[in-house]
């Protein structure tokens, strides 16, 4: 294996860890307390917050079933004798005292706003500084933020850790893709970029395993393990990746150049809509499965299937899309955008099947096919952005696209949440939201190709 391929694999691992760290809380708040399924099925609950009684219920509502669920998870009363650790040990929501509204802040704009603020620095820094050192420092900071979560017991310090994580992760995409541009020739950059972008799906899929991990070691140790793995990656980046030489004269000339342009802004709009669809599906698909009770569904089956489908289908989609873009680019410079347009159009119809299927297995089959067809778009978009601007400002351009898209796309889950009817009908809401995002993105990618 050539050295450049080693760098690509290492950058892929960094990207996987980046996404895993970002979505980790989404799975740590979903860890069940062993032995409490029957007591908690079909009822609402509130965070334990290390209390053994006197919990404040939503809107003052309280009933015997809620009390049984709370007492089972807290291991008090009839559930105390011979019980294992309580919900505070297994579940981040209980142990860190995260309310419903607070969770939305943590996973949404609690990450997005510092990400964009960090991008203001990234936009100017990534094209002029040592990217190896910047990337290693960023990995170390977000890994430290993940480890910090292990010691918190309230919302504010948890929000602080998410702030650090969001700011640090704003560096990973511009720095990584800029390094790939320097390490790989133009005819293979599409394939290399698509392999790197597969880290989005692989990281999101790998995060599913946080649930069984927390059942064995607790949510706090899970955070420490994720943070520790990131520190090792940061050391490998700092010690083994070499910073390629760059044309300093060209960088000085282009340092003040505009990074916009019609194609870049069209790609920004397309990415915003497509990410809105992706974030909506990620936030509400587990809720839909839980409420719909499709034949064959169970939480453990979904966790394993989601990890496999998202990782394998996403990786294959990225690799196949990148190879296709490299081969077609000799005849059509806008091949990445054209492929992304076709992929999103096909994925739109497949996502309707996810919510229209009458069995869990059939729904998962549609989901896997939608990922296999559609998830190539991200790497293709980044390749197209790099081709649309001078090399000296590629990092700034990518940062611009991702910053705008991150802010805009968070409106997708927010809109779906406002329209959520509270039952299995959420599937129709999500299907329409995802169809709008993927369909409109397909039109915009086609416009960029044209």
UniProtKB/TrEMBL annotation:
<keyword id="KW-1133">Transmembrane helix</keyword>
<feature type="transmembrane region" description="Helical">
    <location>
        <begin position="133"/>
        <end position="153"/>
    </location>
</feature>
<feature type="transmembrane region" description="Helical">
    <location>
        <begin position="397"/>
        <end position="419"/>
    </location>
</feature>
<dbReference type="InterPro" id="IPR020846">
    <property type="entry name" value="MFS_dom"/>
</dbReference>
<feature type="signal peptide">
    <location>
        <begin position="1"/>
        <end position="21"/>
    </location>
</feature>
<dbReference type="InterPro" id="IPR036259">
    <property type="entry name" value="MFS_trans_sf"/>
</dbReference>
<feature type="transmembrane region" description="Helical">
    <location>
        <begin position="103"/>
        <end position="121"/>
    </location>
</feature>
<feature type="domain" description="Major facilitator superfamily (MFS) profile">
    <location>
        <begin position="6"/>
        <end position="450"/>
    </location>
</feature>
<comment type="similarity">
    <text>Belongs to the major facilitator superfamily. Spinster (TC 2.A.1.49) family.</text>
</comment>
<feature type="transmembrane region" description="Helical">
    <location>
        <begin position="302"/>
        <end position="325"/>
    </location>
</feature>
<feature type="transmembrane region" description="Helical">
    <location>
        <begin position="360"/>
        <end position="385"/>
    </location>
</feature>
<feature type="transmembrane region" description="Helical">
    <location>
        <begin position="332"/>
        <end position="354"/>
    </location>
</feature>
<dbReference type="GO" id="GO:0022857">
    <property type="term" value="F:transmembrane transporter activity"/>
</dbReference>
<dbReference type="InterPro" id="IPR044770">
    <property type="entry name" value="MFS_spinster-like"/>
</dbReference>
<feature type="transmembrane region" description="Helical">
    <location>
        <begin position="217"/>
        <end position="241"/>
    </location>
</feature>
<keyword id="KW-0732">Signal</keyword>
<dbReference type="InterPro" id="IPR011701">
    <property type="entry name" value="MFS"/>
</dbReference>
<keyword id="KW-0813">Transport</keyword>
<feature type="transmembrane region" description="Helical">
    <location>
        <begin position="159"/>
        <end position="180"/>
    </location>
</feature>
<dbReference type="Pfam" id="PF07690">
    <property type="entry name" value="MFS_1"/>
</dbReference>
<feature type="transmembrane region" description="Helical">
    <location>
        <begin position="192"/>
        <end position="211"/>
    </location>
</feature>
<feature type="transmembrane region" description="Helical">
    <location>
        <begin position="425"/>
        <end position="449"/>
    </location>
</feature>
<keyword id="KW-0812">Transmembrane</keyword>
<dbReference type="GO" id="GO:0016020">
    <property type="term" value="C:membrane"/>
</dbReference>
<feature type="transmembrane region" description="Helical">
    <location>
        <begin position="262"/>
        <end position="290"/>
    </location>
</feature>
<keyword id="KW-0472">Membrane</keyword>
<protein>
    <recommendedName>
        <fullName>Major facilitator superfamily (MFS) profile domain-containing protein</fullName>
    </recommendedName>
</protein>
């Amino acid at each position: 294996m050539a050295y450049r391929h080693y760098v690509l694999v290492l950058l892929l691992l960094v990207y996987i860890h980046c996404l895993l760290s970002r979505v980790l809380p989404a799975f740590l708040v979903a860890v069940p307390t062993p032995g409490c399924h029957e007591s908690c099925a079909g009822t609402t609950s509130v965070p334990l917050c290390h209390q053994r009684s006197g919990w404040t219920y939503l809107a003052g509502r309280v009933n015997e079933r809620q009390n049984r669920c709370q007492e089972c998870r807290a291991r008090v009363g009839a559930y105390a004798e011979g019980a294992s650790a309580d919900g505070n040990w297994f579940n981040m929501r209980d142990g860190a005292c995260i309310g419903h509204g607070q969770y939305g802040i943590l996973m949404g704009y609690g990450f997005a706003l510092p990400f964009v603020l960090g991008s203001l620095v990234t936009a100017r820094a990534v094209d002029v500084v040592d990217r190896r050192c910047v990337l290693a420092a960023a990995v170390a900071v977000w890994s430290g933020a993940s480890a910090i979560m292990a010691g918190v017991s309230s919302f504010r310090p948890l929000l602080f850790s998410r702030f650090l994580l969001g700011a640090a992760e704003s560096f990973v995409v511009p720095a990584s893709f800029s390094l790939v541009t320097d390490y790989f020739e133009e005819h293979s950059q599409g394939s290399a970029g698509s392999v790197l972008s597969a880290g989005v799906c692989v990281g999101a899929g790998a995060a599913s395993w946080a649930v069984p991990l927390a059942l064995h070691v607790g949510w706090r140790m899970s955070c420490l393990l994720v943070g520790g793995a990131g520190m090792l990656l940061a050391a490998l980046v700092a010690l083994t990746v070499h910073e390629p030489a760059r044309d300093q004269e060209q960088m000085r000339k282009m340092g003040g150049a505009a990074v916009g342009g019609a194609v870049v802004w069209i790609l920004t709009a397309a990415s915003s809509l497509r990410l809105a669809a992706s974030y909506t599906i990620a936030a509400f698909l587990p809720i839909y499965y839980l409420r719909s009770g499709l034949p064959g569904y169970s939480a453990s089956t979904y966790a394993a299937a989601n990890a496999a489908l998202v990782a394998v289908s996403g990786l294959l989609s990225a690799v196949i899309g990148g190879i296709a873009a490299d081969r077609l680019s000799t005849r059509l410079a806008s091949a990445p955008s054209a492929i992304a347009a076709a992929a999103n159009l096909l994925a739109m119809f497949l996502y309707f099947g996810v919510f229209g299927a009458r069995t869990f297995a059939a729904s998962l089959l549609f989901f896997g096919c939608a990922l296999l067809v559609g998830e190539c778009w991200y790497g293709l978009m980044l390749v197209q952005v790099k081709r649309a601007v001078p090399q000296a400002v590629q990092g700034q351009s990518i940062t611009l696209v991702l910053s705008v898209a991150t802010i805009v796309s968070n409106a997708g889950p927010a809109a779906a949440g406002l329209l959520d009817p509270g039952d299995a009908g959420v599937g129709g809401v999500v299907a329409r939201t995802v169809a709008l995002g993927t369909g409109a993105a397909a039109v915009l990618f086609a416009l960029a190709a044209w």
